[in-house]
Design a protein that fits this description.
By secondary structure, the protein is α+β, with helices and mostly antiparallel strands. The chain has three domains: 32-42 and 237-330, Beta Barrel (Elongation Factor Tu (Ef-tu), domain 3); 45-74 and 205-236, Beta Barrel (OB fold (Dihydrolipoamide Acetyltransferase, E2P)), CATH 2.40.50; 81-201. It has helices at residues 2-31, 77-103, 107-139, 145-172, 175-203, 249-252, 293-296, 327-330; strands spanning 34-41, 44-47, 52-57, 64-65, 70-74, 206-208, 213-218, 225-226, 231-237, 241-248, 260-264, 273-279, 284-285, 299-307, 319-324. The chain has a six-stranded antiparallel beta barrel with strand order 1-10-14-12-11-15. A four-stranded antiparallel beta sheet has the order 2-9-7-4, with no helix packed on it. Helix 2 runs antiparallel to helix 5 (175-203) and helix 3 (107-139) runs antiparallel to helix 4. The longest helix is centred in the middle third of the chain and has 33 residues, at 107-139. The model is unreliable at 15-31 (pLDDT under 50).
Length: 332
């Protein structure tokens, strides 16, 4: 009987020792000031301001891009047709305005019309006198009917010329002409604004990188249709990495915004530091992907720290260990 109990006692002792070692190891981590976390990128999602079919893409995943570099273009057939229509509308509005201005008389032109009116009036006065003279002679049988008819025709022609020049002067002075010109000018401004809007629409079909960085992911390919605002590219700007880690409540007071921390990981450069930029106000349960069962049931606070160096060899999602920098380093 004693021989059967002995192995059980040995196994129980081993299990107890292992459990104690596991517990103390994690307790040491918790109280050592080291915290587990991972790197997170501050990605810039790039899409188009309007829906459409992707005509072509100029960069692939992993490519380095500079700000304003072309990423992709949407199909522009409809936009180009609209642009041509707006250009034609501007030309039409400009022609209408030019016609109205050509018909509009300037003051010096009105002076010329008035001088012409005086000449035509003199011709009319002379025609009236000639008509009266020949009318009297025709009555007395001195002048022929042909002479009388010719004088009357000359009178009618002179009167028509005088009346026409009067009409032109009246039209030139009409205030309605100014209003028509003003309305045509407004129409031209509207047409030009619509043309500029169409030009902007065409320009926005070419989507450029808003920042310099590395293309992390391409969500859609050439030939696919996207909606307005739908991300097509994900770009990680240079230096936009931060460490995200979790701090127990007992040690939360040791960190505040601006506190310098040291980042440790595989391939991390020596003395890689970051500054705490965010501390959550509400506690949460420890993410199971980071900690084991012991810590999983504990409440912690989420902390973010922005890396102070570029960390070119680092990648988002990479696990890290974070610890508070020494006092001397923290003051730098």
């Amino acid at each position: 009987m004693g021989r059967k109990i002995l192995p059980v006692l040995i196994l129980a002792a081993i299990a107890g020792f292992a459990g104690y070692e596991y517990y103390t190891a994690h307790q040491d981590i918790q109280h050592s000031g080291e915290y587990q976390g991972y790197l997170e990128g501050e990605f810039v999602l790039v899409g188009a301001e309007q829906s459409g079919r992707i005509a072509r893409e100029d960069v692939a995943e992993g490519a380095a891009v500079q700000k304003d570099a072309i990423l992709f273009e949407l199909d522009r057939d409809l936009a180009k047709a609209s642009l041509a229509e707006r250009r034609a509308a501007v030309e039409r509005a400009r022609a209408q305005l030019d016609n109205l201005k050509a018909a509009q008389q300037r003051p010096e032109q009105i002076d010329v019309l008035q001088a012409t009116q005086r000449r035509f009036q003199a011709d009319l006065d002379l025609a009236v006198l000639e008509l009266r003279r020949l009318e009297d002679l025709y009555r007395r049988k001195v002048a022929s009917k042909e002479q009388f008819d010719r004088a009357r025709t000359q009178f009618l022609k002179a009167k028509a010329a005088r009346d026409e020049i009067r009409r032109q002067i009246v039209l030139a002075r009409l205030p309605a002409r100014q209003r028509l010109v003003a309305a045509a000018e407004a129409e031209l401004r509207i047409a030009r604004a619509a043309l500029r809007q169409a030009q902007i629409v065409v320009e926005k079909l070419t989507i450029r990188a808003p920042v310099s960085g590395e293309v992390q992911e391409v969500f859609f390919r050439a030939g696919e249709v996207i909606s307005a605002g739908q991300p097509v590219f994900s770009i990680l700007p240079a230096g936009k990495l931060k460490a995200l880690f979790f701090v127990p409540e007992a040690r939360r007071a040791l960190l505040q915004k601006g506190t310098r921390v040291e980042i440790l990981c595989d391939n991390c450069p020596d003395h890689l530091t970051a500054r705490v930029s965010f501390i959550a106000q509400e506690a949460e349960y420890t993410p199971p992907v980071i900690f084991g069962p012991v810590e999983r049931a504990k409440l912690v606070f989420r902390v973010e720290a922005r890396l102070e160096a570029s960390g070119a060899a680092l990648s988002p999602g990479q696990p890290v260990t974070v610890r508070r920098a020494s006092f001397g380093d923290e003051q730098k």
